Each structure stands twice: as structure tokens, then as C-alpha cells.
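Ticket #4471: complex job returned nothing on first submit. Input attached below:
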Amino acid sequence: MSKLITRRKFIVGAAAASLLAGCDTHPIKGFLGAMSDWNEKFEGFLFSPTRLAPELPASDTTPESAFPSYFISDTIPTVPPNWTLSVGGMVERELVLTLDQLKQMTRTDLRVRHHCVEGWSAVASWHGVRVSDIAKLAGLKPGVKYVEFNSFDEDYFSSWDLGSAMHPQTVLAYGMNGHPLGSNHGAPLRVYSAVKIGYKMCKYLTEVNFLPNKTGGYWEDQGYDWFAGV
Amino acid sequence: MPETHDPAFKGRREQPLPIRIVHWCNALFLLLMAGSGLQILVAYPSFGPRGAQYWWYPFQGSPPPAWTRIGGWLAGGRHWHFAIAWFFVLNGIFYLAYFFLSGEWRRRMFRPWRDTNGALAQFLYYLRIRKTPPIADFYNGLQRLAYSSVIIFGLVMVLSGLAIYKPVQLHFLTLLFGGYDGARVVHLAGLCLFALFLITHLVLVSAHPREIVNMITGGRRE
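Support reply: We reran it on our side without changes. The output follows.
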């Protein structure tokens, strides 16, 4: 038997190691981990809570069939009966909101470029309620620094820095391109934001938690960068 | 040739130590940046936004071959790319500072009024149209053109890379490259120019091996 380790075996081994590392809360270690921490600070430094992404004209809209939809379940997750959104964590008032109650809140519309970690971009218009409006309704206690979004798409979740969540172009969207959000894009409610990469925008929302500590996320725990701003 | 006898360079080696260090660091960083960049490209090996991909890009959907990639998967490629980018930039800043503060720019930088004729003559010589190479001092005009251009390529790579990295926070930069998808095109075009430079550079220094020795030992003193 050959004792040579082929390049393929090496890559498969490295991939297996990185999958194992995915079980850890901070999967990237050593030199790359240190640089990743540094880059996370740099991303926070570059982020401005008031800088807006440009609103695009309707003519820039991507044909909806060409706008990819992402979920981690085997099939498109469907809305559970009696769906509600729970708002909790360090808040004055814990909330349980129905879709109708969300629709009665101030509606925010945005049409901005969407940036996927894979490298593609696309454009759609989204409408819903600003996360900052939800925060106002719930009343944040001092010490909140992060926001965690949870879903019914298996264990998909993502935690955000408070600044990006409170950005005026970060919404909990119940509509896309003027119609109610489809199941392929996260119905009944999803995060949409102009200032994050796509995988931070948790779809099929169930919970929003305002927290003092940073938690990870579905992709983040596997090694994708946590801040992931654009 | 006035530059050769410039008293400013008296006693200085052809390739001073700071330049040799920067050169070999740059060689390593460029390979890591190219390999990790190509790994990132695998995730969407196409150009143009979804639903409106550019008709003129001939390799839509074709990922670069596995042997060119570094990082193993998308997140790995990104971590390598965004880590080494800092070292690439710092190395470049150090080089430019030395380049201008030491006066090295005077014998290295392409200056059109001095070097255009020499560059053209050298090019014709390589094409075998001209029988003899033009008289050159420290570098010939074509070398100056190539080594100066590649600094500009580096700058374009850093700026277009930042435009892709932060298309909202650095929106003015992204606009400069025609938007996010335009910046991706420029970033790949820059890689192709780097590759073209590298191939030419390797062929020519192989034909003049003393240049390779100089980049290791420093060469003779002026």
C-alpha cells in the first residue's frame, strides 16, 4: 500500500477537519482565526449605522425566477399553523406578534442590491417592519449588544451586532416585489437588510432576541465570518 | 547614462535588501491571494448579476481548476484572502515608501519622456524586428514600463477588492468600478494581468539568470 498522501486525500482530510471544527463555537483557529478576529473588528470599524445603501429603480429588479432561494431543510419549510413571532431577551416587554399585528405597524419599503457570500448579486424590493421599530415596541434594557434571529428552518439562526440590526434598512420583511413573501423566500417573515451578506438574513423567522452576548449562527458556527457586513 | 553614475546610488547594490525582502514576500502573498481568490470564485464562477449575466464573458459557470485553489472551501478561501490581504497591502505600502524615500524611483519608475523610445526599441528587439537591443542603463524602458505597471495593477486590485468587500460602506469605491458586479470583473481582469506579467517575468528572468541571483544576493554595488 502506498504511503503517499495524495493531494485529494489531504483536501478530504482538511475538509473533514474543518467540519469537525464546525462543532466548536469559534471554528477557525490559529493564524487564520486571529486574522478573522481582527477582520471582524475592521468590519465593525467600517460599518456606519447611518450610511444608507442606494435605493435602486424598479428597472433593476431581478426576474423573481432568477432570484435564488435558500433553506437548509430538505424541502421548502412551510408556515406552521398559528405562527407567531416572539420577541424576547433583555426587553421591558416580551412580545408575541401575529402577522396581522406586524402588518399594522409602520411599513418600510426598500429596493437595494442583495450580496450573497457566493459572489452573486440580485435586486428585489422588500417590505416589512424595521427591527428598530420592534425594538422600540419591546423596549431594550441597557446592556443589549446583540440580536439573535431564530427560525423554523431546522436549526438555522444568526446573531447580529445591534448596530446592523438597528440600521434603518434592516427590516423583518413579510413582502417581496409588492406581493406577500413566498415560502421559497422565507414566508411568513424573514430578515432583510441592505448592510449584511445574505446568510445573515434569517428566513422563516420565529424569534427575535435582544441579548448582551454574542451567539453564532448556522453558517457562522461552521466557519463563515460572523460580522459579514457589506 | 546619467542615472548609472548618479552619486545618490554610489555604494548601493543593484537590488538593495528592502527591495529583495519585499519582492520575495510579494511573490508569496500574490500566490496566496490568487489561490484563495480563485477558491472564492468557485462558489459563483460567473459574472454579472443573477438574471442578467454578461453575454461577453466566455467562461460563465466554469470554475477554475482545483490545483489553482487555496483554502479548500468558500469560507476557507475567504479567511485566507482577507488575512493575506493585510500583508499584501502592508508590503506594498512599505515598498512604495522605500521606493520614493530612497530615491530608487529615479532608476526604476517608467517616465514617458525618458523611457518611451527605449521601451519601444526593446519591444521591437524582442519581436526580432530590431537586430540589436537599445542601449540601456539600470533598467531598459520596457522593464521600467512593466515594473511600474504592475504597481498600478496592485493598486487596482486592492481598490476593486475593497469595492467587492464593502459595496455599501465603501459605495463611492464600488461606483468607481461600475458597481459590485463591475468591480468583480475588474478584480478578475487584474488577476489576468498579474498572471500575464508573471509569465513574461519568469520567461525573461530565465533568459537573464543573473537577475535572479541579484534578487537573492543583491548584486554588485554601484
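The radius of gyration of chain A is 19 Å. Closing as resolved unless it happens again.
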